[in-house]
């Protein structure tokens, strides 16, 4: 079985070297492994929770999309999309909202931290807290559960969110599992429960001041800074005050750690020697700049081209959304029906109704009746019903019969007619009065087969 791996990237800020080494590079490498099916998306609805400047949201989303592609994410191999293009995500968010315990959300770290800050400041506990912040874990659960993801690679700070997704998913399964199995004819559970995947080996890079590189410390080096800017930033990294000629520690040195993240093992070893031999900080930084620039240059070039052609990016992301929705549309259909929100009957299933657009070919249509059973009918190009299958317990049973009719045409029909007689019309019934004759049915099946060939 292929493992389905999914991760979201909140589209705030500009990607930096720490994001690259700690998240982008390992995620792209993992997406190339055999036996995995990867979903990567821009969590742009999540971005609205933290940022309210539309221009910045738009800019960051474009930059982050271009960054991942420039860094080698292959949209043919993975499914790469924008959260906001998948309407099933907010739909599922609501279904989950209605089963999520409020008490669970009260315990979310980000919300609790905001409340604690307010308490300390003597404010109302919910001062400045939006319902969006509060609901963050539910939206994230929908991101994950809408795709049946098994593994979710995230940083440690996100583990709680994955556990909440499991919790909420489990509750949905418990409440609606039976209804879902009845509605869809599928076995198992409606929602797959995900696991967090924490990569311990991944580097956290130090920033300019030696603390973890992070936007919140304002100590970052943008991944695609122009060479002059990159050089300036590298030269400003804090070091100890050892003079040239004095041996230097690699341990705890931001210059060394950054170098190592972009160097081969051999190059890192050489740098270790140079530190022991007392390389001057200026020289060490010069080497660091050269190494990073060399590693980044080809990607920077790609990035510039992508950002300059947003139409191409748009195309890639829309194609990604199309692929993504092949998963989410059928899933949500089943979940909505499980929750009692399905159609009363499929359009066209009611007496006298006509298809909105005249079909050019005969078609087999599947639908569900109020009795909860699964039906199908063969209609000709004008929408007249030629043949009707009566009441199956599951869409699978109906589907198998339809597949046979399509595959074997008249042969299957003859056999089924006999069975139908035997089963007193239980399985397939040729319509009585205004039904076209068997010849018309055979004709339609043939036309369909030819039309599809
Ligand atoms: N909350 C995640 C972060 O800040 C981003 C994210 C949103 C995400 N939806 C997700 C990650 C779904 C994994 C799966 O890093």
From TrEMBL:
A motif ('KMSKS' region) lies at residues 212-216. InterPro entries: aa-tRNA-synth_Ic (IPR002305), Rossmann-like_a/b/a_fold (IPR014729), Trp-tRNA-ligase (IPR002306), Trp-tRNA-ligase_bac-type (IPR024109), Trp-tRNA_synthetase (IPR050203), YegP-like_sf (IPR036913). L-tryptophan binds at residue 143. A motif ('HIGH' region) lies at residues 11-19. Its main location: cytoplasm. GO terms for molecular function: ATP binding; tryptophan-tRNA ligase activity. Gene3D superfamilies: 2.30.29.80, HUPs, Tyrosyl-Transfer RNA Synthetase. This is Tryptophan--tRNA ligase.
């Amino acid at each position: 079985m292929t493992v389905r791996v999914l991760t979201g990237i909140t589209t705030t800020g500009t990607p930096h070297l720490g994001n690259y080494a700690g998240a982008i590079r390992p995620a792209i490498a993992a997406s190339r492994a055999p036996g995995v099916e990867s979903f990567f998306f821009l969590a742009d609805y999540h971005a609205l929770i933290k940022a309210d400047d539309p221009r910045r949201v738009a800019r960051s989303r474009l930059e982050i999309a271009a960054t991942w592609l420039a860094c080698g994410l292959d949209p043919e191999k993975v499914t790469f999309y924008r959260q906001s293009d998948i309407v099933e995500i907010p739909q599922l968010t609501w279904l989950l909202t209605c089963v999520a315990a409020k008490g669970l959300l009260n315990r979310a770290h980000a919300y609790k931290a905001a409340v604690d800050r307010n308490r300390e400041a003597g404010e109302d506990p919910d001062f400045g807290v939006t319902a969006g912040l509060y609901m963050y874990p539910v939206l994230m659960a929908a991101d994950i559960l809408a795709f049946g993801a098994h593994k979710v690679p995230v940083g440690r700070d996100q583990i709680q969110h994955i556990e909440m997704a499991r919790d909420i998913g489990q509750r949905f399964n418990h409440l609606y599992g039976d209804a879902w199995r009845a509605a869809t004819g599928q076995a198992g559970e409606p929602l797959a429960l995900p696991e967090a995947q924490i990569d311990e080996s991944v580097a956290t890079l130090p920033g300019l001041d030696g603390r973890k590189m992070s936007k919140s410390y304002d100590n970052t080096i943008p991944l695609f800074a122009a060479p002059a800017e990159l050089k300036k930033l590298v030269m400003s990294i804090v070091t100890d005050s050892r003079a040239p000629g004095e041996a230097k520690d690699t341990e705890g040195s931001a210059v060394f750690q950054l170098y190592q993240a972009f160097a081969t093992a051999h190059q890192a070893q050489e740098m270790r020697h140079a530190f022991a031999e007392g390389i001057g900080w200026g020289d060490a930084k010069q080497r660091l700049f050269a190494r990073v620039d060399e590693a980044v240059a080809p990607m920077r070039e790609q990035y510039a081209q992508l950002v300059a052609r947003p139409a191409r990016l748009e195309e890639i992301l829309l194609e990604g959304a199309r692929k993504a929705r092949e998963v989410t549309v059928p899933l949500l259909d089943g979940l909505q029906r499980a929750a009692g929100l399905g159609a009363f009957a499929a359009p066209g299933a009611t007496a006298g109704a006509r298809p909105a657009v005249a079909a050019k070919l005969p078609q087999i249509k599947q639908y569900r009746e109020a009795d909860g059973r699964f039906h199908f009918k063969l209609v000709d190009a004008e929408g007249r019903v030629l043949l009707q299958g009566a009441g199956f317990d599951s869409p699978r049973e109906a589907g198998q019969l339809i597949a046979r009719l399509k595959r074997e045409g008249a042969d299957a029909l003859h056999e089924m007619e006999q069975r139908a007689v035997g089963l007193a019309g239980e399985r397939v019934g040729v319509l009585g009065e205004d039904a076209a004759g068997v010849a018309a049915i055979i004709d339609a099946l043939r036309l369909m087969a030819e039309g599809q060939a």
